[in-house]
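Can you please make up a protein's amino acid sequence together with its fold in C-alpha cell form to help me picture the idea?
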Amino acid sequence: MTENEIASVIVDASYKVHTALGPGLLESVYEAVLAYELERRNMLVCRQMILPVIYESVVLDEGYRADIVVGNKVIIELKSVEKVVPVHSKQLLTYLRLSKMKLGLLINFGDNLIKDGITRVVNGL
C-alpha cells in the first residue's frame, strides 16, 4: 500500500474510534484503541516504536518514540488536547525527517469533530 492508501485507512479508523469514544480520554487510551482498530483492518502496526537519532555518526537508540507507525510508512502522532499548537506539527515533521518516512498524521482526539483534529504532515511526498 502507498502512504496515501494507508492514511485513508487511518483516517477512517480514527473516525470510528472518535465516534465510539468521543473526546476527552487519555492519549494512551486512543493509542491502544486505534492500534487495535488498525490491526483489525489487517494493517501492520507498531506502537511506541523507538526510532534512533544519528548524531555525528553516533546512534542514540532512545532518540524518540513514535506513537504509532503503520506499514513502516506512516507515523501517527496522537494528541488528546483542547488545541493543537504549531510545535506538534514541527515535532512530527522532525520525526519524519529522522526516520526518512514521507507521511505523518497528527491526530487530536480532543476535538469535537475528528475531521478538525487531523493534520497531514509530509516530508517530500
